[in-house]
Amino acid sequence: MTDHPALSHLDLPDVALRNRLAVAPMTRVSATPKGTPTSEMADYYAAFARGGFGLVITEGVYTDTRFSQGYLNQPGIVEPPHVDGWRRVADAVRAAGARPVMQLMHAGALSQGNRYTARTAGPSAVRPRGRMMEAYGGSGPWPVPHVMTVDDLDTVVGGFVDSARAAREAGFSGVEVHAANGYLLDQFLTGYTNTRADEYGGGATGRIRLTVRVIRAIRQEIADPAFWVGVRLSQGKVNDHDHRWAGAREATTIFAAVADAGVSYVHVAGEGRGWGEAATLETGETLTSLARRVAGVPVIANGGLGDPELAARVLRDGHADLLSLGRPALANPDYPARLARGEAPVPFAPAMLQPTVTLATAAGWRSDHPREEAHITATGARPRA
User: Fold this and answer.
1) Closest CA to 76 of 123, 50, 41, 119
2) 90 and 100 Cβ atoms separated by less than 8 Å
3) How many of the other CB atoms lie within 10 Å of CB of 139?
4) How far apart, in whole angstroms, are the C-alpha atoms of residue 235 and residue 258?
5) How many CB atoms lie within 10 A of CB 79?
6) Do residues 276 and 305 lie in contact, with contact meaning Cβ atoms separated by under 8 Å?
7) What is the mean pLDDT of the chain?
């Protein structure tokens, strides 16, 4: 399997990745109560780099001290200890040969644990669908959010910019703006959660405007093309797996807008659906290939792509440039190495999410680093890829 297309190099702006396999962002809620990354987190992320992944994307990291935090024990990048903790993570990932990217996340109305405030905020006073997630300490219906003012939106944009600057200071190769999965930027993009009558509402052009502002502001602050500013987009959400955009026309508007803002890559998430199940639009084109054609930048596909045959087809047929793995990576921290040896990946099992089961043990994998097997657990590593 050494000729598998996922093992080929990929050139991103000013940097070559050793392969086309990325670790998808997965919520872990395993930072300290004050949001500082721990040494165990550095071990966790470094394990994927040692296993051969070319790109390691972190869990969503909160970006300001107002409404951004989504979960208790979620890591932040807004205080000096946060930066120091993330520097240890970035150094460990780089030392193992991979590129670290920090996902920047504002939870908005889907916050259920914020040490700075008890209120939530969103584009409109619309209660989110579904119920809070017990796995992350929530229960009951979501509260109705505070309606964000223009001043609030300025704070959101400033938080993303400051966080991107801090991520760069910590040694990350780039940031990924989280505009997917039902969180704040996706709440603005979604018609039923955004009923605004101002420039941030209405059609897709207005609803994507806040995401565009964030991307453009980061790129203006950090003009170096070697520092990537990616964006993650999705149709489904953690609280609504069935949601879909209004066809290829709306998708084209969205992809064109983020491309014009200056993104380095587009990451299309498959929240709750495999790529093969939800990839095809009414035009017959896949969502990821449309993103490649419209945005003209590398595209990361996500969703059930741990099957080597499907992964090869997605890359060879031009549907995407990279693949991000969530559950397959949890089950196989050395997935690229297994692929190179022609070994079948270990299937994901729910037991891998229990604190008593290490990823290494669950996958039948052994590390040369004793601390790695002790700490590379799925404690709190609940995939949302």
Assistant:
1) 41
2) yes
3) 9
4) 15
5) 14
6) no
7) 90
Q: Cα-atom radius of gyration of the chain, to the nearest Å? A: 19
Please state, in angstroms and rounded to a whole number, the distance separating the CA atoms of residues 179 and 177: 6
Instruction: State the first-to-last Cα distance of the chain, in angstroms, to the nearest integer.
Output: 25
- Structure tokens that stand for 359 in this block: 């990823």
| Structure confidence at residue 44 (pLDDT) | 97
Q: How many residues does the chain have?
A: 385
CA atoms within 13 A on the CB side of 133: 20
User: Phi and psi dihedrals of 221, rounded to 5?
Assistant: -75, -40
Give 17-51 pLDDT, tens digit per residue: 999 999 999 998 999 999 999 999 999 999 999 99
pTM of the model: 0.92
- Phi, psi of 298, deg, nearest 5: -55, 140
Residue numbers in the chain where pLDDT is lower than 70: 1, 13, 272, 278, 354-385
Distance of CA 66 to the CA centre of its chain: 21
Residue range 234-255, pLDDT digits in tens: 999 999 999 999 999 999 999 9
Burial (0-12, 13-18, 19+ Cβ within 10 Å), 102: buried
Burial class (CB in 10 A: 0-12, 13-18, 19+), 146: middle
pLDDT at 208: 98
* CA–CA separation, 15 and 273 (whole Å): 31
Rounded (5°) CA angle 260-265-268? 105
DSSP state of 134: G
CA distance 228 to 89: 18
CB atoms within 10 A of CB 225: 14
| Bridging pattern class, strands 146-147 and 10-12 | unpaired
DSSP conformational letter for 93: H
- Nearest 5°: phi and psi at 167? -65, -40
Residues labelled catalytic: 183
